[in-house]
Amino acid sequence: xxxxxxxxxxxxxxxxxxxxxxxxxxxxxxxxxxxxxxxxxxxxxxxxxxxxxxxxxxxxxxxxxxxxxxxxxxxxxxxxxxxxxxxxxxxxxxxxxxxxxxxxxxxxxxxxxxxxxxxxxxxxxxxxxxxxxxxxxxxxxxxxxxxxxxxxxxxxxxxxxxxxxxxxxxxxxxxxxxxxxxxxxxxxxxxxxxxxxxxxxxxxxxxxxxxxxxxxxxxxxxxxxxxxxxxxxxxxxxxxxxxxxxxxxxxxxxxxxxxxxxxxxxxxxxxxxxxxxxxxxxxxxxxxxxxxxxxxxxxxxxxxxxxxxxxxxxxxxxxxxxxxxxxxxxxxxxxx
Length: 336
Ligand code: KG4
Ligand code: ZN
Prior knowledge:
- This protein is of the alpha/beta class.
- It has two domains: 133 residues, Nucleotidyltransferase, domain 5 (2-Layer Sandwich); 171 residues, 2-Layer Sandwich (Nucleotidyltransferase, domain 5).
- The two termini are 19 Å apart.
- The structure holds 5'-O-[(R)-(carboxyoxy)(hydroxy)phosphoryl]adenosine and zinc ion.
């Protein structure tokens, strides 16, 4: 079964063709970051407009890369939510129209389920059950994934998402948007021990997170520093901030694996591309006989292959969305 997936929940216009839920035939991601960079964050109105411009060429490119004609697609899936409504509507409506015109099954996919499915597309996907850390710009949560599409939420952030904290700290340091990759790189040249930022909830047994306190501590530190920061000071702030975030994420996900007696851990979402987090987890997992599943960076950030992969199971079970269905900004209202 060849599924065309479409993703437009935030600032990436993406389309992909995935065969049988596992084999990526093509995956095209057109990023808008250059535009939003100017404003220090995603401007929803601009995002919608850019999706409208990009959606047709991106879908066409995904078909070309897969070497397929539209008639060779078996089903269409698109992100239904959560995300920016105006952005979601572009991909969701396009997918509906395409499915209607070609008389194909259509499915709306939850973006978070998409992220969780991204690890199934990696070269060595984990067996079930596994514990997954989902850390992105909009979400930070730990799940016990018992089977495909069946996951229990163990804990989540009470305020900012990890990626959001990265983006805000980057903005404070004048490094633009998005901040994750820039801070990750800058952190390499800094000393994480020069500043001690808080590690909220580290001592708690629960799996909830809080990142706004770390962000505020960084802001206060920058204010106290007063004059313009040198590059070395910036690097130290990046390194100390990253150390705090990585400490909390690593500790919580490994603790969840321990509590669930689970030897398999996966990380997904944009922040899963973080080198510091990946290296730390690799170091900690060795010696605890935990198999770590780190998807390639291209599958961590928003992409449409993960949406097609998540849709596959639903289609196999005969699920379809109605062409009357609407997108949602926060939580799915109707289960698939
Ligand atoms: O999954 P994603 O592409 O979109 C959402 O669903 O939010 O995640 C984007 C987030 C942004 O906040 C970005 O700064 C962060 O992931 N990110 C990173 C890295 N690469 C992207 N955060 C930390 N380190 C990175 N290397
Ligand atoms: Zn995402």
